[in-house]
């Protein structure tokens, strides 16, 4: 038996998220159908986490077990020949049998991209969310620093979040401006449902002067969700990379 780890890149625009569900086409469903066609048998993909409808990934990690002896390159090339143009396997590696893409993950890097423009841009409509008007970027950067460390993120989770605890650790968080695009890069031990999108919405309100640094500090002490920013749309969010201990095969 072999345990194969895949690094997957996808444009989530046309999908109802990663995880298989009855009410829409998902990345996992498409991937598992391609796997079954290539292997001649069903294989279940265990991913590092879920992404919601419309969210993208450059570095989603998923693993599956198989007894097939084909070379690693064949897993990558074979799957890519069967997948649609908006999903691609970037890498395939063999990892220990006890490796699990979700449970062995140590940290994740997400990026949320905003288009700072009063006019819409057709070229980035699927990968960035447009924010009109001026933002105080330096105030937003100051607020970013408040998120670093271990905090109670109860005010930054979706209404249907089922996590048992709302405490998470953020290792780094910064804003990077690239012309009209503003990227929020956030690296943390784990994330609650919609957490990055609510943090982004909160930072935008800081940039608009609607929230202050003191407001953010209060929210990070287990504040009320209603006092945080909006849940920004999904298209600006991308899972960039998942990090694992060296001994687990990363």
Write up this protein.
By secondary structure, the protein is an alpha+beta fold. The protein folds into 2 domains: 2-104, 2-Layer Sandwich (Alpha-Beta Plaits), CATH 3.30.70; 107-241, Alpha-Beta Plaits. It has 5 helices and 10 strands. The protein has helices spanning 27-39, 72-82, 137-147, 195-207, 213-219, and strands spanning 2-10, 46-47, 56-66, 87-95, 107-116, 129-131, 149-152, 167-178, 181-188, 237-243. Strands 1, 2, 3, 4, 5, 6, 7, 8, 9 and 10 form a 10-stranded mixed sheet that branches. Helix 1 (27-39) crosses helix 2 (72-82) and helix 3 crosses helix 4 (195-207). It is globular. The two termini are 19 Å apart. InterPro entries: PsdUridine_synth_cat_dom_sf, PsdUridine_synth_TruA, PsdUridine_synth_TruA_a/b_dom, PsdUridine_synth_TruA_C, TruA/RsuA/RluB/E/F_N. This is tRNA pseudouridine synthase A. Its EC number is 5.4.99.12. Belongs to the tRNA pseudouridine synthase TruA family. It catalyses: uridine(38/39/40) in tRNA = pseudouridine(38/39/40) in tRNA.
- How many separate domains? 2
Radius of gyration: 19 Å
Shape: globular
How would you spell out the order of helices and strands?
Answer: EHEEHEEEHEEEHHE
Number of strands: 10
CATH topology of the largest domain: Alpha-Beta Plaits
Outline of the structure:
Keywords: Isomerase, tRNA processing. With 250 residues, this protein is of the alpha+beta class. The chain has helices spanning 27-39, 72-82, 137-147, 195-207, 213-219; strands spanning 2-10, 46-47, 56-66, 87-95, 107-116, 129-131, 149-152, 167-178, 181-188, 237-243.
């Amino acid at each position: 038996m072999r345990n194969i780890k895949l690094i997957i890149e996808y444009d989530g625009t046309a999908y109802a998220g990663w995880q298989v569900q009855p009410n829409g086409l998902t990345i996992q469903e498409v991937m598992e159908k391609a796997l079954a066609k290539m292997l001649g048998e069903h294989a279940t993909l265990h991913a590092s986490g879920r992404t919601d409808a419309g969210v993208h990934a450059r570095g989603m990690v998923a693993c599956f077990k198989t007894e097939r002896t084909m070379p690693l390159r064949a897993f990558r090339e074979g799957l890519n020949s069967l997948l649609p143009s908006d999903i691609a396997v970037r890498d395939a590696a063999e990892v220990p049998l006890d490796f699990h893409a979700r449970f062995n993950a140590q940290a994740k890097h997400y990026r949320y991209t905003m288009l700072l423009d009063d006019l819409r841009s057709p070229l980035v409509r699927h990968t960035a969310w447009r924010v009109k008007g001026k933002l105080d970027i330096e105030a937003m950067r100051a607020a970013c620093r408040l998120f670093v460390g271990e905090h109670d993120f109860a005010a930054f989770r979706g209404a249907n979040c089922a996590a048992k605890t709302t405490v998470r650790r953020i290792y780094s968080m910064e804003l990077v401006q690239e012309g009209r695009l503003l990227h929020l890069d956030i690296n943390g031990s784990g994330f609650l449902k919609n957490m990055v999108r609510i943090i982004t919405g909160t930072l935008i309100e800081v940039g608009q002067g609607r929230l202050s640094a003191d407001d953010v500090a209060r929210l990070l002490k287990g504040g009320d969700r209603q006092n945080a920013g909006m849940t920004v749309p999904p298209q600006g969010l991308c899972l960039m990379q998942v990090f694992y201990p060296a001994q687990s095969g990363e």
